[in-house]
Known about the structure:
The complex is a heterodimer of chains A (364) and B (335). Chain A is 56% helix and 9% strand. Chain A has 364 residues and is α/β, with parallel strands linked by helices. In chain A, strands 4-3-5-6 form a four-stranded parallel beta sheet, sandwiched between helices. A two-stranded parallel ribbon of chain A has the order 1-2. Chain A starts with 8 loop residues before the first helix and ends in a 5-residue tail after the last helix. In chain B, the strands form three sheets. In chain B, strands 2-1-3-5 form a four-stranded parallel beta sheet, covered by helices on one side. In chain B, helix 13 links the parallel strand 9 and strand 10. The termini of chain B are far apart. The interface between A and B is large, with 37 and 37 residues.
Amino acid sequence: MTMPRIGTLHVGMKAVLEGMNHEVVVPPPITAQTVNLGARYAPEGACLPLKINLGNYLQAADEDDFEAVIMASGVGPCRFGYYHRIQRDILRDLGHDLRWVVASPPRGNLRRLLGDLGELTSGVGITDILRAAALGWRKLLALDDIEREGLRQRPREARPGRTTRILRGAVQMIDAAATVDEVADARAEALQRLRSSGEPGGDERVRIAVVGEVFMMLEPAANLHLQEELGHIGAEVIRTVYLTDWVRDNVFFDFLRMSRPEDDARKAAVPYLEHFVGGAGQETVGRTALLSERVDGVIHVMPFTCLPEIMARSVMPALARDMDVPVMTVVFDEHSGREGLTTRLEAFVDLLQRRRRIRGRKRR
Amino acid sequence: MQDDTAVEAAEARVKTGVRVGFPRALMYYTAFEFWKRYLAALGVEIVVSPPTDPRILARGLDTAPDDMCLPVKVLYGHAAWLEPRVDYLVIPRVVSTRPREFSCPKFMGLPDVIRAGVRLTSLVTVKVDASQSPRRQRRRLVEFARGMGFGGRRIGAALAEAGCVYRRLPRSVSEETASSMARFEEGPDTLRVAVLGHPYLLGDDLASSYLLGRLMDCAALPLLADELSSRLLDSLLSELPEKLYWTEGAIVLAAARHYCRRDDVDGVIHAHAFGCGSDSLLGQTIGRRVRCEGDKPFMNLALDEHSGKEGLLTRLEAFTDMLRRRRGRRDGGGV
């Protein structure tokens, strides 16, 4: 079976699914071709994540055979919950009649989650399931830790591109790891290499928080490697959503009805966006409000036509003014180009550096 | 007891002198009667903005964020028109109109974001959430009236008279177009074309580029989902193979399925606003359903503020021409 490419998700999913004796076809890394392919067959007004996912499945189908697609779904009002239906229809029109294993948010309903995923686990012993799940989860946690350290180290790197190379190597090593011990070793090694790759100092570097729609933040190809670019320009990036955070919040905490960090973000948004608007709209506003004191600027990423983020974007100017923090919104679609993005990022970092100098502060 | 309530309501109507504005946009086309009853029972003077004209539209385009769909931009224009003319301006927060379903994200956050575009000093909002218990829904209506300075007794009387259960009462046709439709004479050549779309787009003549009127100019009678009784609509909705969580989107799809099955329908047009979330995805599904299962000619129209009059006319003429030829072939004989 195949799955969408979202950051390092495939590494974890592969471990879980192969641990349950399923054959996994991982779509190739996302390139401009992936985006064009998806955009050709997807509805024009659909959001970029849908188009990219569709491109993933089409490219995977070119490379290998599979009978099923596994992906998640939502309950609205963001359009994500409808992706599988649209993608299934389009793929069927193109001659790919596939089975769809779709996991909706459990929302406290264990039976529903088991129902969605039941066919995956049939015939597999419970210990194997738990071992596979643990391995997959550990891999994702390790990759997120490494990514976090990478963002911290990249602006300090002695040679441009070194951080990215270490990260890529780490993904390969962890993907190949067969036990949790091997994962732990790979993680430790990657962290050590990252920490020794950079120059000290960095109080004068601007700190930028990245907020916005979840897929856009998790998949570097979708945001045209924005976080890497910022690091190369010399800014330290604070990512507000990591894959494991998202899974933890939306699967575990939600299931256990515990309060989630997302809820704090939603509360902070209330003076500007009082109500839930789907997706991560409120969270985007709230995270900006909560982080504004600790960063020099905020970049808001969103796909063109994303409704919840349009709502967030509409209230950002007032928020930016009140919190005295510059916010730049970057809207992505299939026509977005890397050059244009780099120009905007350089200008933004420039602005933040100048602001700092004028206000005579070293660090907020 | 009942008489006292009626008398109180009548007195209230004379006494308050409070002017409350309701924009002729969005919710006006789906449930104005529901709020009107309540507001009238409270005794306020209801002011509805005029049908969208070029100045209102321009104001909306100036003040609304670019990526909003046209009907929302139109609302901004109406809000700006009403603001200096009323004591309170109502912008409902429609979250859900059917249990476990949603309306659009834009509606959920509308009262918050509109403040960023239009300077509004007298905005009051009322939350509509059919997924909440009737008691909580009632409380929303109470809060709404309190926000306008009314007290418990008057509110209680108004609720008793007007009721507090949200009811969808669509108007997909403006008053002017409705009178044109009433005067429309059907002849042997008249086509019957089902027009699918959200009421707040179709019912706004300027925003819809006078689509319904132009269809009639092509000797085609528009059929609108308003004519479907709520019982029929409910049964169509329950037949949908998969649960759709956008109520208005689901209604359009349900109407599509209905018109597919009718022999008296020559063709189907789906009009949607550029940027409409539900229609951007459902449009595909609707088109597929109509073409494949219904075997009816189908045309998809994306409307936005840049829609050219000529382009639309050309497409409508081509479509209706095609429908006529198809009918001619069917009824016997060649082209």
